[in-house]
Design a protein that fits this description.
The complex is a heterodimer of chains A (477) and B (352). Chain A has two domains: 8-258, Thiamin diphosphate (ThDP)-binding fold, Pyr/PP domains (Rossmann fold), CATH 3.40.50; 295-476, Pyruvate-ferredoxin oxidoreductase, PFOR, domain III (Pyruvate-ferredoxin Oxidoreductase, domain 3). Chain A is built from 17 helices and 15 strands. Chain A has helices spanning 2-6, 35-48, 83-93, 105-111, 113-122, 162-165, 171-176, 192-210, 225-228, 232-246, 274-277, 312-325, 372-378, 411-417, 424-435, 441-451, 455-476, and strands at 55-59, 74-77, 98-104, 127-132, 135-136, 142-143, 183-188, 216-221, 250-254, 300-307, 329-334, 344-352, 366-369, 387-391, 405-409. The longest helix of chain B is centred in the middle third of the chain and has 22 residues, at 213-234. β2 (74-77) of chain A pairs parallel with β10 (205-206) of chain B.
Chain lengths: 477, 352
């Protein structure tokens, strides 16, 4: 019987081949350290529940960084404090696995405070073992966030003070205050009785995960004879007399029986359905390219400017969409940087038969000005012989230049007469199709239904486009 | 498959999903947030995971966990957020985990601003985190490449078990262009090293610890050999009008689009100028630049960046003093006009 108890759990590797040196049989932990005891409880529970092969063990930074020497499982070693985030990535990818996130007090409660808080708050379906021995063991006995007031460590040589370091942090109480965790208990590894209670808690925390109940958190008050500069028996006594007074044992939360199992089933879409699911269906439009009149004589560089809310950016996008379906190279970019100041919006559109270099339009061939500041700001930039299309119902000045095509359009008035001032940008689109060679009205009329899916919106926009088209043709005569 | 008019930032997410990525972990930051928005919209539709993490640090560590299971996972951020991810990238590189990280560079240092810069070159291309590691770095210059190079990033990351970064800027992210989306990837090499919570993986370990100095040196040597293989096999660049060029302008990302136009104007004026655009920044087209520097007809190089001059160091190393290497940069989110570029290139080439 005693042989069986002392023998290795099948949850551990037969020999610890990853452990450096010649000793492949024993752990690297100091005599009297609690880690080995807790490791064994975890390994036994996993074997008993027949899930050992499904475990993914996340080891932290600290004395248990080498837990992967021992656990016969897939092991992932995490950066300091990040185990709960790593565990989140693992569990979301492998919902059927049993994810154990194992951390010490510095790892979990100091550098990893944020990660544990949010993993708990999301109710990640994992089991967290928090080994609290009130000290940094691995790095040489420094103060932990759980070090007691007055406790001497290598970084609190005169004892931790309230004034300098504040109170020790009580993680079980904090985690239990969150809504999502289903089970939070603090146990200790001090004597036979407390170890039995700890074993029970370990099993419950793992059982919860098997039953898909959510997030379980077991804080384990554990010994560190080396860090505490005590013998093993003294260490166990110190837990019982001192540590436990500051960190009361008990179940802080247990709603595992009251919650329904989480639905963790994978619903990955079959690959062949993916394009459709992300909106990449074949364009339904079929074009008789030969029937198109396009192929603009010169590449178009269009700047559209106005107030936010006038549909400035949308007009640019539609122009580009139409150009794309005319088999032109197109680019669109919204105003960026200093140009954004002053509450005006503008965008740059390029339509070209060749590859487009810079997407920026500094010297437009067509300026569409939808308010006065835009006309005044960009009029001087237009190329010789370029066009200025401007909303004459909103702008009360004329362009000054005589070397450009001046195309005043009462776009807002036309739109209002149609009952919706918001369609003024489509009126302007129609005008451009009417006077220019770079927009094919037939293509526009086939693209508009792709943009305006609602019937009443499509109708009014088609009328707005037609009005603009007629006006544009008159103006070009 | 389907041609769509989309923003560069959206093309990244659609490309990632077509490449088989089913996990996106991110934290909001301008001007990269649209990538998170698109991932939040599309990932659940294909049964993938989208999670807004509590921090950039948590996000990259979630990617570490997901990548450790062998699935294709990604995150995206912008400069200050990328700085926070450096810890995780060092661990990913050390543990040889494949993943894709997108950096939509903004103005710095510190909080800087949200306008486009290229000042993350050093922190992305030269490592940035601790240790002797490198990221694979791809620099798209169009919405199409935002899709294509994201997909390539996943392939290269898997092929070499190494983090791959798509380094872009706010301009390319915001720009809309037609994108021809390819068919989804259907074949993936098996990752026998992954930890998948099944019996056959019980000897697998994802870790970056090597306590023994000799072991750690061997591990580092192996990484350096890997970077050499990547350089030999997967260096990518584009040449524009270099066949008879006397002057070589080097620019990547959005700058290469501006230089393209400037080169055309200079050619119209009779200046024999061309462009070399690095598509991979790690590996860098060092060899090609050295070859060009050795040509008699090539008189000088000029490097244009939206930074204080970071990539120019790599051009200088490649040219190795054979020819003059000049630099012109803008900072703070300012982008040079074509007129300005033409003027500066002429000044640098001394043909004014």
């Amino acid at each position: 019987m005693s042989v069986k108890i002392l023998g290795k759990s099948k949850g551990f590797y037969d020999t610890y081949e990853r452990r450096p040196g010649s000793n492949k049989e024993q752990t690297h932990y100091c005599p009297g350290c609690g880690h080995g005891i807790l490791h064994k409880m975890i390994a036994e529970a996993l074997v008993d529940f027949e899930v050992a092969e499904n475990m993914v063990f996340i080891s932290p930074v600290g004395c248990s960084v080498f837990a992967y020497y021992y656990f016969n499982a897939g092991n992932i070693q995490a950066a300091h404090g990040r185990a709960p985030a790593v565990a989140t990535g693992v569990k979301r990818a492998l919902p059927e696995s049993i994810v154990i996130s194992y951390q010490g007090d510095g790892d979990l409660a100091a550098i990893g405070g944020n990660e544990i808080l949010h993993a708990a708050n999301r109710g990640e379906s994992m089991t967290v073992f928090f080994v609290n021995n009130a000290i940094y063991g691995m790095t040489g006995g420094q103060m932990a966030p759980t070090t007691l007031i007055g406790q001497k460590t290598t970084t609190t040589p005169y004892g931790r003070t309230l004034q300098n370091e504040g109170y020790p942090i009580k993680m079980a109480e904090i985690i239990a205050s969150l809504e999502s965790p289903v089970y939070v208990e603090r146990v200790m590894l001090a004597d036979v009785r407390s170890k039995n209670a700890a074993r029970k808690a370990v099993r419950k925390g793992i059982r919860n995960q098997i039953e898909k109940k959510g997030f379980s958190f077991i804080e384990v008050l554990s010994t560190c004879p080396t860090g505490w500069k005590m013998t093993a028996p003294q260490s166990e006594e110190w837990i019982k007399t001192t540590l436990v007074e500051n960190f009361p044992l008990g179940v802080y939360k247990d709603i595992a029986d009251q919650v329904e199992p989480l639905d963790l089933s994978s619903n990955l879409a079959p690959t062949e359905r993916v394009p459709k699911l992300i909106g990449l269906e074949q364009d339904k439009m079929e074009f008789d390219t030969a029937a198109m009149k396009i192929a603009p004589q010169i590449d178009q560089e269009i700047k559209i400017a106005g107030f936010g809310g006038q549909g400035v950016l949308s007009l640019g996008v539609w122009l580009s969409e139409i150009g794309m379906r005319e088999d032109l190279q197109v680019s669109w970019i919204p105003s960026y940087g200093p140009e954004m100041r002053g509450g005006t919006a503008n965008c740059h559109v390029k339509l070209s038969r060749n590859n487009i270099g810079s997407p920026l339009v500094t010297h437009p061939t067509v300026l569409v000005a939808m308010n006065r500041p835009s006309l005044e700001k960009f009029e001087g930039d237009v190329v010789d012989g370029g066009a200025i299309v401007w909303d004459s119902s909103l702008i009360d000045v004329e362009p000054q230049r005589k070397d450009i095509r001046n195309i005043p359009v009462p776009a807002t008035k036309i739109a209002k007469d149609l009952g919706n001032s918001r369609v003024s940008n489509v009126v302007l689109l129609g005008v451009m199709a009417g006077f220019s060679d770079f927009l094919d009205p037939l293509v526009v009329q086939r693209v508009l239904p792709l943009i305006f899916k609602k019937k009443h919106l499509l109708e009014i926009n088609l009328i707005a486009f037609q009005k603009g088209l007629e006006l544009g043709r008159e103006l070009s005569d | 498959m389907a041609k769509q008019f989309v923003k560069g930032n959206e093309a990244i997410v659609k490309g990632a999903i077509l490449a088989g990525c089913r996990a996106y972990y991110g934290y909001p930051i301008t001007p990269a947030s649209e990538i998170a928005h698109a991932a939040a919209q599309f990932m659940p539709l294909v049964g993938g995971t989208f999670l807004q993490a509590e921090s950039e640090i948590a996000a990259i560590n979630m990617v570490y966990g997901a990548a450790g299971t062998g699935i294709r996972a990604m995150t995206a951020s912008s400069s200050p957020g990328f700085s926070l991810k450096q810890e995780g990238l060092s661990y990913l590189a050390g543990a040889e985990l494949p993943c894709v990280v997108v950096d939509i560079t903004r103005g710095g240092p510190g909080l800087g601003n949200i306008a486009p810069e290229q000042a993350d070159y050093h922190q992305v291309v030269k490592g940035g985190g601790h240790g002797n590691y490198k990221n694979i770095v791809l620099a798209p210059n169009s919405a199409q490449e935002m899709c294509d190079l994201t997909m390539l990033a996943f392939d290269l990351a898997d092929k070499y078990r190494n983090p791959a970064v798509v380094l872009a800027d706010g301009f390319i992210g915001q720009m809309m262009e037609p994108v021809d989306f390819p068919e989804p990837v259907t074949e993936f090499a098996e990752k026998t090293w992954a930890v998948r919570g099944v019996d056959r993986d019980r000897m697998n370990l994802v870790s970056s610890i090597e306590l023994d100095p000799d072991d750690l040196e061997r591990h580092n040597q192996k990484l350096q050999q890997k970077y050499e293989i990547i350089t030999n096999n997967d260096t990518r660049y584009e040449e524009y009008k270099l066949d008879d060029a006397e002057f070589v302008v080097v620019g990547y990302g959005i700058v290469s689009r501006l230089v393209h136009t400037a080169v055309n104007q200079l050619r119209d004026e009779g200046v024999k100028v061309g462009m070399l655009r690095p598509i991979t920044l790690m590996p860098y087209p060092t060899k090609r630049l050295s070859e060009l520097a050795a040509l008699d007809r090539v008189k000088a190089f000029s490097v244009i960046e939206l930074s204080n001059g970071q990539m120019v160091d790599d051009v200088r190393l490649a040219v190795n003093g054979a020819k003059p290497v000049e630099f012109y940069g803008r900072m703070g989110g300012n982008v040079p006009s074509i007129k300005e570029l033409v003027h500066e290139i002429k000044r640098m080439m001394r043909v004014l």
